[in-house]
Amino acid sequence: MPASHVDLVSHWRTKAPRERVWAALTDIEGWPGWWSCVREVRTLRQAGADGMGGRYRITFATRIPRFCPLEIEIAESLRPESLRCRLRGRLRGEGIWLLRSADCFTDLTCVWRIETATGWMRWLKPVWVPLLRWNHDAVMCAEGAGLARHLAA
Fold this sequence. Notes:
Blueprint: E1 5-14, H1 18-26, E2 38-45, E3 55-61, E4 67-78, E5 82-89, E6 93-102, E7 105-115, H2 119-123, H3 125-152
Antiparallel strand pairs: 1-7, 2-3, 3-4, 4-5, 5-6, 6-7
């Protein structure tokens, strides 16, 4: 039986210190200022003092010509090492950003595990998974480039 999920992985390296990368990443309302694919962020629930529990509705403009609103909820926040969130909307799943200091760099890895629970996703997986990966690569490339510009400013 085929897997019921798809893993999407991205890696970046930036010269910015980990704390600055963490600050940009956890300022979700500020994403539209540096991440070109993010069109709008609406806060549905403010995060607690520990950074957890925040819920956001984020509208992405991607290579696929439809705006894709997703709901992200912060499930775990281990400052400044990892941020884990749940994803709801047209896509469901879980994502985690991992930040590691290396010399004078910060390495950032992002992993999204997208559920393929609906019937059409399972049946059309050979078609939509390559499309999803192609689209995801563009969105995350824009994130990496925008984050680098933002942190250099």
